[in-house]
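Convert to structure. Protein one:
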Amino acid sequence: MKAGKLNWDDLKSIIEDSRQVRREDVRIRSGIGEDCSVVSFGDYDCVLSTDPITGAETNAGRLAVHINCNDIASSGIEPLGILVTILAPENTSIEDIKKVMNEIKEETVKLNIEILGGHTEITKAVNKMIISCTVIGKGEKNRAVATSGANEGDDIVVTKLLCLEGTSIIVNDYENSIKDILTEEEITEAKEYVKYISVVKEGIVAGKLGVNSMHDITEGGVLGALWEVAEASNLGFKVYRGKMPISSITSKICDKYSIDPLRLISSGSMLITTRDGSKLVKLLQEEGIKASIIGKITKGKGVLVNTSGVEEVVIPPERDELFVLEEKVE
C-alpha cells in the first residue's frame, strides 16, 4: 500500500464493520469526514478527537497540538486538554524528545490547554518519531457542530490561506531545492506559516454565530475536505479554483513540483458551510481572520470550476500531494 490515508471506500468499510456497539450517550459518531465524537454528559458534551503526525519532522510537536485542537474547534467547541503519545526509534536522544515536548508545551500555553498525560516509548517498530495526540473539549449540551450538517444552498467559506501547513513543511524539509524559486524573504515567510495553523479562534467564533457544518482542512487539501463534508452530508458542492485563497509562495512551490495546491495538506484553514457566508466573513474579519466564499453546497456531485469556466467532477484525492512530492524527490 502507498503512504497516506486509506482510501475512503476501504476506510468506510472498516468503520462500518467495527461499529458493533452503539450507546445512547454518544451523540455524534466517527465516520467519513467526522473527525470528532461527541459524548453526552448531562448538561455538557465531551468532544474527543485523535490524530498522529507522520508527514513532518520540523515543528512536529507544534503541528501535533494544532491538528488535534483544530478537530475540536471544527465542532465549535474550545479544547481543554491533550494526551500525548510519542513512539521514537532507537537512535533518538533525550534531547530530541525534550525538543518535541517543549514545542508541545509552548503551543498548549498559547491555547490554554492542559497536558493530561500520555505515553513515551523507544521502539524498533518505527524508523522516525511518531507523535499521536488525543484532545478533549467540553461544551454545552447539543452545541457541537457536526461535519455532516451541511445543507443545500449553504455558502462554503474557507479561512485564512490554503496550504499553510503543506507549504511550511515543504520549505523546512526541502529548503535547498527551492532556493532557485523563492527569495530568502519568501522562505522566511513560508517558515512562519506554522504560526497560523490553529483554527481554534475561527471555530469558536463560527460556533457562537451558529453554522451548519465545519471541517478543518488537513490531509487531502481543500478538495479532500469538501468531499468529506459532502459525503457526510449526502450532498454535493460547486467551487471555483479562482476563488481559492492561495499565496504566491505556495503557487511557486506547487508549480515547481507539479503538485495541486487544492490537494495539499492545509491545516490552518477551516471549511465552514452556512446560510449567510457574507455575514460570517464579515464577523471573522472583525476578529482579524481573513475568510473567502469559494462556492456553494449543492445536490448531486462535487464540481470544481477551473479558471477557464470548465467544470470537472471532483473525486476523493487518493493521497495528499505531500506524499506525492516525497516520491518525486527521493
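Protein two, convert as well:
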Amino acid sequence: MEILLIERDSKGFAMAQENDNQLGMMTYSIASEQLIIIDHTDVEAAYKGKDVGKKMLYKIVEMAREKKKRIIPLCPFAAKMFQKLDDIKDVLH
C-alpha cells in the first residue's frame, strides 16, 4: 500500500492506493502556516478495519511534524485516533 500526500492551494489530502486502486482518502484544509484541519476520511468498504485510515493519518502527522504544523481533527475518525493514540498527540492543536 502506498500513501500519497498532495496539496493544492489551501487544500490537501492523503490517498491510499494499491495496484492503481484507490483504497481511501483523508482530506484537510490549510488554515494557516502553522495549522491544518483534517475534515474527512473515507475508506473503501473492502478495506475498512485494515488500518488504511490510520496509515493516511500517520502520513499527515509526519508532514505536520516536518513542517512544524499543528492539527485540528474535525473529522470524527481523526478525532477518535487522536484520543486513542498517544504517539501523535504532539501535533494536536
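Residues 52-66 form the longest helix (15 residues). The mean pLDDT is 97.
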